[in-house]
Design a protein that fits this description.
Radius of gyration: 16 Å
Order of helices and strands: EHHHHHEEHEHEEEHEHE
Strand content: 15-25%
CATH superfamily: Cysteine proteinases
CATH class: Alpha Beta
Distance between the termini: 20 Å
CATH topology: Cathepsin B, Chain A
Number of helices: 9
Number of strands: 9
Low-confidence stretches: none
Structural class: alpha+beta
CATH architecture: Alpha-Beta Complex
Length: 208
C-alpha cells in the first residue's frame, strides 16, 4: 500500500507557539495559552479569546496546512475559525465554551470560501485510508489526542484531528497540530496498527 500527498505540506500548530503543548496538557489550554507570546499572530481579538478557542482549532490548523500547500498563502487560524463558525462548524455555548469542529458545515464552508471539494468520511477501517489518499488530495483524520504518545493506550478514539500526508506499506505519516516535540508534530510516523488504536474511523477527505 503506497499513497501520499505529492507536494510538500507546510506544518502549522494549533498554538501559535508550537512548544506550548506540554503546558497545555499540564494546565489546560485556557490557562497555559494566556502565556503564549505569539498569540496575536492567530488573528484573535484578545489573548483571552485566543486561549478560549485554541484548544478546538486542530481542524483549522489542518485546513491552514492544506491551504498553504495548495495556494502558498498562510491565513490566520482565527480568521478560518470565525469563517467556519458562520457556517455552523463551531458553536459558542452560553458559558463561553466552544463546540466543534462539526464536520458537516465544514464542507460548504471550504467549498464557498476556498473552492475546495470536501466530503465527510465515516465508518471506515484504518486500512481504507490508503484508498482515500489515492482518490483525494488530503485526509483529515479523527484520532485521540494522546496519539503524541504512541506507546500509550488511549481511553477513547477520536476528538482530535491530524492531517495525513502519506501511507507507505504499513507506515502512516501525518502532521499533528498538537504534537509536543518535533518528532510528534511534523511528518510524525507510526505503524498503521498503532495508528488504529487512536483512529475513530472518520474524518474529512479533501479532493483534488
Amino acid at each position: 500500500m503506497d499513497a501520499r500527498v505529492k507536494q510538500r505540506v507546510p506544518y502549522f500548530s494549533q498554538w501559535e507557539t508550537p512548544d506550548m503543548t506540554l503546558a497545555v496538557v499540564a494546565e489546560g489550554a485556557q490557562t497555559a495559552l494566556l502565556k503564549d507570546p505569539l498569540w496575536a499572530l492567530s488573528g484573535a481579538s484578545s489573548v483571552e479569546d485566543y486561549a478560549r478557542w485554541a484548544g478546538n482549532l486542530c481542524g483549522m490548523a489542518c485546513l491552514k496546512m492544506v491551504l498553504a500547500a495548495r495556494t502558498g498563502k498562510t491565513l490566520p487560524i482565527m480568521d478560518l475559525a470565525i469563517g467556519c463558525k458562520e457556517y455552523g462548524g463551531y458553536v459558542e455555548e452560553q458559558d463561553g465554551r466552544i463546540k466543534g469542529l462539526i464536520y458537516a458545515p465544514f464542507v460548504p464552508f471550504v467549498r464557498d470560501r476556498f473552492n475546495l471539494e470536501a466530503r465527510v468520511v465515516t465508518g471506515i477501517p484504518v486500512t481504507e485510508i490508503g484508498d482515500i489518499l489515492r482518490q483525494s488530495q488530503f485526509f483529515i483524520a479523527s484520532v485521540h489526542h494522546s496519539i503524541r504518545w504512541p506507546e500509550t493506550e488511549p481511553p477513547a478514539k477520536g476528538g482530535h484531528l491530524v492531517l495525513v500526508t502519506a501511507l507507505e506499506e504499513d507506515m502512516i505519516r501525518f502532521h499533528n497540530p498538537s504534537g509536543h516535540i518535533d518528532a510528534t508534530r511534523e511528518n510524525a510516523e507510526m505503524p498503521l496498527e498503532i495508528f488504529d488504536r487512536f483512529f475513530a474511523g472518520r474524518g474529512i477527505a479533501i479532493d483534488r
